[in-house]
Design goal:
The structure holds two protein chains of two kinds. Chain A has 14 helices and no strands. Chain B is an all-alpha fold. Chain B is globular. Classes of the chains: A mainly alpha, B mainly alpha.
């Protein structure tokens, strides 16, 4: 394909994305309008509110970090043709791992402790992803359903852990003890809440891009995603690759739990995923078209929108669930994409 | 003994929320359309039924509203999966997310007076309710429950003994042949998806009207997804679907009674049980299920004139 053709396709995609945003915006506006709010005011505050000051930017980037990890987790799985829908559960279980390492390992140097909690979050999340993976390869169980059900089990597992074995005996509510000071993620900017989670996320995005672009392993994953039959005839051991992919995907989602525990709450509660990051990230994957770099941009934008929605709630009084409606509508209108895209390409040909 | 009766009675009562959506899902999958968003239709149905009943104080209007709300959401899925030919899983996930956000938003935004609704109460049928054992188990339910039970033979006869049932089954196996015979594949699939939406809405409506007399955010708690598994388990057959639903309802009922009875097992672990059992059953019956034939064109969009 020549360069001009490529440019047109990218432009077509960009326009179809914008059209999807406009459709979602229009439909959400109807909901907002009929609940008696000023549409423009709500959206203006929601979009700009998350980036107004250094504190708000910090909050937005902190929201973006778990979103980014969950989106990347889905990207790895979907690119390999595996439908892991379980990032929410993997986030919760990863959080258990990081909480354990953060609370009970004492006297470690900060650098080593941080590495440890990251590994713990990854391993626990990876384990939660491994289960649907191994069930798929050994028993041909549909991973969409198993990974989905694992979400519910993971959430109840955290509920159990914070109420019974790990409950802080001095607290009246269901929380664990605080993590050690050495297990708190370092701040990027002093006197803000901005922790290094987003940077780790960007690093993971680069690694994923590199693996898929330049390594044999990534090539095998991609082949598996495009056509499993070709992959099998090409000598790729799919039965082994599926659990391995799920381990990586689950581990990355587990890191979302890590940053929530040791960057935001500093303890484990049932409320470590207030925006349901694992579910919220599903539309983002489709918006980014499985591109890790686009995932960074999308996470920051929607992280800002999540912060903005909290500010709208405080100032205007609208329920922040309106953002979930908005995002799911983008996902729906993106399915009209191919039609919009075809239409635009036709238009280009005429011009 | 008393406890066992309670568990069995609860099993029947809870099974409604599983077999009714699963019957609808059976019809739509038989016609070749996957409805991952059954969970979402249920949530819509639950909220619609709750709000309507809270405002009108008429539970039957609530049932109608629940059915309509579920059907409305499924209509969107029908459009995307049949006309647009989008990936049915993606469309389902999007609609499920939408339903979570939308129902929570509406529930928090619309203020209704009083939180508890009357809904349906168990009917007392003279003589029958007083029968030993059986009376407490199956003759002490709400009117809605009996309608649900009636729907099982109705769906069985509809699917296997009527012309439309045959058309639906053929559409899932060989839509081209249906098209050649002069029937509209699109229309049949639309009808099947709408039936799924309506039934899921009805199943969702049962939760606020009969079980809780209240609404909670995300109160369906994955029942729509378990219903998906039940359809596979029941081999796309209404009778099998009912048996599968009883199995899961039994686990649910057991779990609830253990909580009520003050079991020493911590309650979050009990609440996990239905999902764990679903996964175990899916895995354990895997080899048998692979032989069970799913509709050949399940989740495959139909392009007119294409074989």
């Amino acid at each position: 394909m020549n360069n001009a053709g490529r440019e047109k396709i990218i432009l077509g995609r960009a326009i179809s994305l914008i059209v999807a945003f406009i459709i979602a915006f229009a439909l959400t506006s109807i909901v907002v309008y009929f609940s008696g709010f000023n549409v423009l005011k709500v959206f203006w505050i929601a979009i700009t509110g998350g980036f107004g000051s250094i504190d708000k930017v910090s909050l937005s980037l902190n929201e973006a970090a778990p979103l980014l990890f969950c989106t990347l987790a889905y990207i790895v799985a979907f690119k390999s043709g595996i439908w892991n829908i379980g990032a929410e559960g993997q986030l919760f279980v990863g959080a258990i791992g990081s909480a354990l390492a953060g609370i009970y390992l004492q006297g470690l140097p900060k650098f080593i402790h941080i590495i440890t909690i990251i590994i713990a979050g990854f391993v626990f999340g990876a384990f939660w992803g491994f289960i649907p993976g191994i069930l798929k390869s050994k028993f041909k169980t549909n991973e969409i359903i198993t990974s989905l059900l694992m979400n519910f089990i993971g959430v109840w597992l955290v509920s159990y852990v914070v109420r019974f074995p790990l409950k802080d005996p001095d607290s009246f509510i269901a929380v664990t003890q605080k993590v050690q000071d050495s297990a708190r993620l370092p701040l990027l900017v002093t006197r803000t809440s901005l922790h290094m989670g987003i940077l780790v996320g960007v690093a993971v995005a680069v690694i994923i891009w590199f693996i898929f672009q330049y390594t044999v392993f990534g090539y095998r994953l991609k082949t598996m995603g495009v056509n499993p039959l070709t992959a099998r005839f090409g000598g790729i051991a799919i039965d082994k690759m599926v659990p391995v992919t799920m381990i990586i995907s689950g581990g990355i989602a587990g890191l979302a739990g890590t940053v929530q525990v040791s960057g935001v709450h500093f303890l484990l509660t049932e409320f470590i995923s207030p925006a349901h990051y694992g579910f919220f990230a599903i539309p983002l994957v489709f918006i980014t078209r499985l591109n890790p770099f686009a995932a960074i941009i999308a996470s920051i934008f929607f992280g800002g929108l999540l912060t903005g929605s909290k500010i709208v709630q405080l100032t205007v009084g609208i329920d922040p669930n309106v953002i979930t409606i908005f995002v799911s509508l983008i996902m729906l209108s993106l399915m009209l994409d191919q039609y919009i895209e075809k239409g635009i390409l036709k238009l280009f040909k005429k011009v | 003994m008393e406890l066992l009766l309670l568990i069995i009675a609860a099993m029947f009562r809870m099974s409604f929320t599983l077999f009714v959506p699963a019957l609808g899902e059976t019809i739509s999958q038989r016609a070749g359309v996957y409805n991952v968003a059954a969970e979402g239709y249920m949530l819509f149905g639950a909220l619609g039924a709750y709000l309507t009943t809270a405002i009108t104080h008429n539970a039957w209007l609530g049932v109608v509203a629940g059915i309509l709300c579920g059907a409305f959401l499924s209509l969107i899925h029908a459009y995307f999966s049949i006309n647009i030919k989008a990936n049915q899983f993606v469309s389902g996930m999007a609609l499920w997310l939408f339903s979570m956000g939308f129902t929570s938003y509406i529930f928090r935004t619309v203020k209704v007076e009083g939180i508890i609704i009357d809904g349906f109460n168990p009917l007392i049928i003279n003589h029958l309710t007083n029968l030993p054992y059986i009376g407490k188990i199956i003759f002490n339910e709400s009117g809605l429950f009996y309608i649900g039970i009636l729907l099982i033979p109705v769906f069985y006869i509809f699917l296997y003994k009527t012309k439309l049932g045959l058309l639906i089954r053929s559409t899932g196996e060989n839509p081209f042949a249906v098209d050649m015979a002069g029937y509209s594949v699109y229309r049949i699939r639309y009808a099947a998806v709408l039936i799924c939406g309506a039934m899921s809405g009805l199943g969702g409506a049962y939760l606020p009207l009969v079980i809780l007399h209240n609404f909670n955010e995300n109160m369906t708690a994955g029942r729509g997804f378990i219903a998906l598994c039940i359809v596979i388990l029941g081999r796309w057959n209404p009778a099998g679907v009912f048996l599968g639903s009883l199995l899961f309802a039994a686990v649910d009922a057991l779990q609830m009674q253990m909580q009520v009875a003050g079991s020493r097992i911590p309650y979050p672990l009990l609440l996990m049980l239905p999902y764990v059992v679903t996964i175990i059953v899916l895995v354990g019956l895997g080899p048998i299920m692979r032989k069970a034939v799913a509709p050949r064109k399940l989740a495959v969009p139909y392009e007119k004139g294409e074989e």
